[in-house]
Amino acid sequence: MTAETSTFTPSSRVRRIKVSPSTAAAARVRELKAEGRPILDLTVGEPDADTPRHVKDAAIAAIEAGETKYTSVNGTPALREAIRERMLRSSGIEYPDAAITVGGGGKQIIFLAFTASLDEGDEVIVPAPYWVSYPDMVRANDGTPVIAETTPEDGYKLTPRLLRESLTERTRWLVLNTPSNPTGVAYSRAELEALAEVLEEAPQVRVLTDEIYDEIYFGEGRMVGLAEAAPALRERIFTVNGVSKSYAMTGWRLGYGVGDPELVRAVNLLQSQTSSCPSSISQAAAVAALTGDQECVRRGVEIYRQRRDRALELLAGIDGLEAVVPDGAFYLFVGCRGLIGRRTPEGGTLENDQDVTLYLLESADVAVIQGSAYGTEPFFRMSYATDLGTIEAALRAVGEAVARLR
Ligand code: PMP
Description:
Layout: H1 12-15, H2 21-34, E1 40-41, H3 53-64, H4 77-91, E2 100-103, H5 106-117, E3 123-128, H6 133-140, E4 144-149, H7 160-166, E5 171-177, H8 189-200, E6 206-210, H9 226-229, E7 237-242, E8 255-258, H10 261-272, H11 280-291, H12 295-316, E9 322-323, E10 331-335, H13 353-364, E11 366-367, E12 369-370, E13 379-383, H14 388-403
Parallel strand pairs: 1-11, 3-4, 3-5, 5-6, 6-7
Antiparallel strand pairs: 2-8, 7-8, 9-10, 10-13, 12-13
Helix pairs in contact: 3-11, 4-11, 5-6, 5-10, 12-14, 13-14
Bound molecules: 4'-deoxy-4'-aminopyridoxal-5'-phosphate.
């Protein structure tokens, strides 16, 4: 059986979407490493730390106790209670049980929220730079992504004005992501309040706020989420979070969504016909993560902060590169306009950020992802969810490769 002899025709739904560029980049890095190339990989979208011991123990205990069967579609009562307490702790909001659902990662929850709500032609406002999956998730669910291009002057954040310009009668959702992948910038309470004011006059619009990185936050105190900043909009806000990033649990596939019980009911209905429920073992592990000692989260943030500061310091010494200073998450979005038009030692010209990314891979053995994948050029995203030694070696190699340009 080969691709050439296959008579399979994918649905129009599938033909509308593409492989996530971060998945593609990770695959390319694996290939090159398999060929023996010493690639310094800054494409990773997951914590380098191991899942905390007490979380693994809880999963092992769940297996031993026979918690290995289907659970309710919306998760075990213990997990929903842990999420309820977590939301109360992080936002001061008391969500009823019916407002909470869990799924196989925040990614699945976002996808199902769109499946549950979008019809052909419905518009979803996605501020750029965006997490690569949002536009394709909208397309896969018959919606139309409306890209709102933010500017450096506005710190790559959506402004009330840009939001107003992007709204139409067909707008069903605004997607917010704070702190953002790929920029790491987070919205302040005042910025969220200003966006909420615009949305108060657009009752047809709901907000899907992806706050999966909210605990990896370098600002004072904790990050303020949209539902907390905009109580008047609360009925229309769907907050997505999960255990992947805060607790180094990407492979456990466990995320959650909190908001309007009617939307949650629709998401649950879809879950009941797709996955039935997320893994019972991962759910037990997530309970331990959310209710256990939070020292692992605090330690993670300190480590990311040190790496961020060191990476910013090294980037500042490279002519032609300019980083956006992140408030959270573990990515740096690096502007490379200063390199466009320069010539490589091989005689080529760097025309765009794809060329820059390729040049860094070929000439410095450093893997990053081009900004165009996130809807904003010319940039590249580098992750600092990797050890300081790799970050330093990579940025030194980038500096040397840039110095070889003319
Ligand atoms: N949102 C954003 C912005 C992300 O970067 C990711 C992971 N790359 C997710 C959601 C999904 O995370 P998960 O499905 O592991 O919960």
